[in-house]
Design brief:
The protein has about 375 residues and is an alpha/beta fold. The chain has helices at about 15-25, 65-75, 90-95, 95-120, 160-175, 200-210, 230-240, 260-275, 280, 285-290, 315-320, 330-345, 345-350, 355-365, and strands spanning about 5-10, 30-35, 55-60, 80, 125-135, 180-185, 190, 215, 220-225, 225, 245-250, 255, 300. α1 (about 15-25) packs across α7. Bound molecules: nicotinamide-adenine-dinucleotide and 2'deoxy-thymidine-5'-diphospho-alpha-D-glucose (DAU).
Length: about 375
């Protein structure tokens, strides 16, 4: 059983949700978060955990092998859960360098540190869990079967190519050196603490700021949306029961066209404002929502270069072999998400800083 965890990228969106879930579900053992706190990392996402005796945070880079090795030894780590990555497809198109550095070189250095401490050292039971993405499998056409674990890799963006490379490294370190590894593959996550560069939080926040809701191309691209806490539960199950060297898709069979998701969020936001009068005072800028005309903010913008048309994940293996099933329905998950952003204004306001504005200007040219 995993006992002392090192979680890389634990101050990011999925990592922070995993850390909260793990800390709640596992009152014993210890957990170290290693995170470089890039623009996407946010210590406020871990706030409640800080100060706990079982939890520690280290600001550092996964490429720093000496640092990683010392944490593995000093904290007696038996399990690495590797989330740290550059994760945004659009940024990878403008500036791929950081994606190669962190996702490929960073994963390589982490694997080497684990090999050095675990395999050349005390031979302790260990596991390196790698968090991957369905984007490594490429793009589906309408009617194509879902991605399974045995799909060939066909990554199309610098982001997905760098993630595919990291998956291959993890596999090779298992096959060649005998490092115990597992890999999980998930589809588009949504939920609390997601940085507002991704579709769902951009739409929620722009509604509250009465800004355009940018839809790339025709808006008919399909994504398989999955609530982030169910992703955390899936990773937990793989850590507890998964077989070494195996790959597990984790998903909830929930395909939506982008434009349909955006329309739905507009409706949920209008509903939230009509049910709870406090939001009108709290978000006076949300004039289109207040007037019941949220959808008028929908704005079609130029498409993402090389935009993948459809992702859809087949999670049969983890269901049948490990007994996994998601707890949240899409309806309850998306309502919780809208509500979380309404109730956690301080969290998202604090990230709408200079570098966020620069990114919005660069990608959309619409921010004031
Ligand atoms: P994110 O961008 O929100 O967070 C990434 C975290 O990694 C940040 O806290 C950042 O500071 C940290 N980081 C970046 N470079 C680092 C470095 N060199 N050293 C240490 N820390 C570093 O990303 P996310 O959406 O939480 O994704 C986490 C992982 O899950 C990624 O590996 C991603 O590929 C994978 N994934 C994400 C989704 C999704 O929908 N978000 C779906 C499937 C898989
Ligand atoms: O599938 C898993 C992947 O999901 C993860 O590996 C990535 O880390 C994560 O970022 C996500 O990638 P996507 O590119 O699918 O997510 P994003 O939220 O950026 O975009 C979702 C869809 O919405 C996509 O078809 C592009 C579109 N989109 C996105 C933005 C930011 C828009 O139409 N407008 C936008 O402004």
């Amino acid at each position: 059983m995993p006992s002392n965890l090192l979680v890389t990228g634990g101050a990011g969106f999925v990592g922070a949700n995993f850390v909260h879930h793990w800390a709640r579900a596992h009152p014993e053992g210890s957990l170290v978060v290693l995170d470089a706190l890039t623009y996407a990392g946010n210590l406020a996402s871990l706030g409640a955990l800080e100060g706990g005796s079982r939890f520690s945070f280290v600001k550092g880079d996964i490429k720093d092998s000496e640092l990683v090795s010392s944490i593995l030894k000093e904290k007696n780590i038996d399990t690495i859960v590797h989330f740290a990555a550059e994760s945004h497809v659009d940024r990878s198109i403008y500036s791929p360098d950081a994606f190669i550095e962190t996702n490929i070189l960073g994963t390589f250095r982490l694997l080497e540190a684990a090999r050095g401490v675990w395999l050349k050292g005390d031979g302790r039971k260990h596991c390196f869990h790698h968090v991957s993405t369905d984007e490594v499998y490429g793009s589906l056409n309408p009617g194509d079967p879902f991605f399974t674990e045995s799909n060939t890799f066909s990554p199309n963006s610098p982001y997905s190519a760098s993630k595919a490379a990291s998956d291959h490294l993890v596999r090779a370190w298992h096959h060649t050196y005998g490092l115990e590894v597992t890999t999980s593959v998930s589809s588009n996550n949504f939920g609390p603490y997601q940085y507002p560069e991704k579709l769902i939080p951009i739409v929620i926040i722009n509604l509250l700021e009465n800004k355009p809701l940018p839809i790339y191309g025709d808006g008919k691209q399909i994504r398989d949306w999955f609530f982030v806490e169910d992703h955390a539960r899936g990773i937990e199950l793989v850590l507890e029961k998964g077989s070494g060297g195996e790959r597990y898709n984790i998903g909830g069979n929930n395909e939506w066209a982008n434009i349909d998701i955006v329309n739905l969020i507009c409706e949920l936001m209008e509903e939230a404002f009509s049910v709870n009068g406090k939001y009108k005072n709290q978000f006076p800028n949300a004039t289109s929502v207040i007037k019941g005309k949220a959808k008028t903010l929908i704005t079609y913008v130029k498409d993402r270069p090389g935009h993948d048309r459809r992702y859809a994940i087949d999670a049969t293996k983890i269901q049948q072999e490990l007994g996994y099933s998601p707890r949240e329905s899409f309806e309850t998950g998306i309502r919780k998400t809208v509500s979380w952003y309404l109730e956690n204004e301080a969290w998202w306001r604090s990230v709408l800083d200079g570098s966020y504005k620069d990114w919005m200007d660069r990608n959309y040219g619409v921010n004031d």
